[in-house]
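To whoever is on call:

I kicked off a structure prediction for a single chain this morning and the downstream step that reads the tokens threw a length-mismatch warning. I double-checked the sequence; it's 175 residues and nothing unusual in it as far as I can see. Pasting both halves so you can look.
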Amino acid sequence: MLEANKKNNKTRGFTLIELLVVISIISLLTSVILSSLSTARMNARDAKRISDIRQIRIALELYRNQNGTYPVIAYWINSSNSSWNSLQTALAPYMPNLPKDPVNNSTTPWVTGSYAYAYGYDPVSYPLAGTQYDLVAQFENTSHPLRASVKGWIQRAIQTAWYPSYSAYIYTGEY
């Protein structure tokens, strides 16, 4: 009977190889899930950027309808510093809380990997202040179908494409 007990004890546990296989499978599944989660978060932030730019454009049009021009600011402002407050003040009747980029890590959206909203115009290129503007953000998804390099959007100020001299992942919204 003692020998039968020893035999049962040997078959109850897992071998080292079995444990290693289970750990590797769990690790693989975890990395796949985390990768998918990261991509989903990136796409969610890009969707928010599109929505925010559209909302700001609607507020800008409401401002123009009431005032005859778009808000005139000092050249370019961006969502990552206090300059954004000037646009917030101008659009407050139409949009109480002006959104900022979900990452908002830079003072410019022009360089790849820099995330902020920017609003502005070139007063030298525009003869009348407040007649046109550019409103831009940058996508994290570098293959997003709405990026400027695909849509062929141009910078209104100098009537040239955004992407040759700036990041190819700029989003400017619909004109």
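Update from on-call: the warning came from a stale cache, not from the record. Cleared it. Sanity check on the structure: The chain has a mean pLDDT of 82.
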